[in-house]
Amino acid sequence: MVRPRGIALRSVELDTLVDGLTFVFVLGAFIPLSAVIKPWGPFKRRRIGGVVALLAFIAGGMLIQMPPERPAAIAQAEWDRRIALCREHAAGQFRDCVRDTAELKKAEQQADEDKRAKLAEERAAAAAKSPEAKIGPSVLKPYTKKDDPDIFAAWGPKGVQRIEDLRKTAAYGVAKQDKCDAVDLVEIADQRSKAPSRITIYVQCHNEARYFLTQAEIGRGVFLSEDDRDEAVKAVPFRNACSEGTQSMLRYPSSYNQHIFGSGTFTDDDGNHGITVDFDAQNGFGNKIPQVAQCTLMPDGKIKIRIHNR
C-alpha cells in the first residue's frame, strides 16, 4: 500500500521536530545548570537552576530514545532489529544509528565486541572452576549388569572396567577445557566402539560442546571437541598438508592442478573429520584426469589421504 504523500511529509517533519527539540533540551539544560555555580536572572536560587537543568536533561533523554519514523523501503523486521541493536549499543546516538548506515555499522561492531568480551568472561569463569565442580554427581554413575546388560554382554566385566576408567579420565580431561562449561554426559559411543578393544567415549557439555574421544586420544591427553576438529581441517596448515601429501602420491607431482572452488568437508563413519579437494593431474598416457583427494584427520594427528577419479 502506498503511503499518502501528506502523511510521509508529516513523518519527516515530526522526526525533524524531535531532533530539534532534543538538541534544544540537551544543550539548553546547560543554561540553568550554570546557575548552580552562580545564581542569575530567573534562577536566583541554585536549587531552581539544578531542578530545571535536570528536567531538561530528562526530556532530552526521552526524546533521544524515541524511534524515528520507519522508511517504507525498510522492512518492519529489519527496523525492529535496528531499534533493538541501537538502543543497546549506540549510546546517545540512538536516532542517528537507526537511520544512518555508518552509525549502524558502528553499533554492529560494538555488539560483536561486547559478545566476544562476554564469551571471554564466560570462558575465564569456566576455566576458573575446578574440574570436579564442572562434573555433575550422577554423570559418572557406573554401569551395572542390571541396568546395562548389553554393555556387559558385549564387553565382559574387564572390558566394562576399562570403559569406566576411560569415562572418568575423559570427563576430567574435558572438564579442564575452556570450551566446556560443565560436563552433563559421559558414555561409551556404541556406534564408534567395537568389542573387545576399540573404545570411544562420548562427552557432552551443558553448553552443547561435544567430544568423541578414542582410547588412544584419552591416553595421550588429547581432548578435541567436534568444533575443534572441524576448525582444524578447515585451517590453512591442514589444507596445505593435504595438497602436499596428495602431490607426493601422484606419478607426476608437477602436473597437480588444484581447483580453487572444488573442496568441501566431511565426517567419516568413525567420526573423523576431513576435507575433499578437487584437482586435475596427468596420468601415464599424458592425459589430464579429473580427480578428488579425501584428506582425513586421524585420532593420532596424522593425515590419511585417498585419491579417486571424479
Automatic annotation (TrEMBL):
Listed A to Z, the keywords are: Membrane, Transmembrane, Transmembrane helix
Give the highest taxon in the source lineage.
Bacteria
Q: Which residues cross the membrane?
A: 20-41, 48-66
Could you identify this protein by its name? DUF1176 domain-containing protein
The beginning of the lineage is:
Bacteria, Pseudomonadati, Pseudomonadota, Alphaproteobacteria, Micropepsales
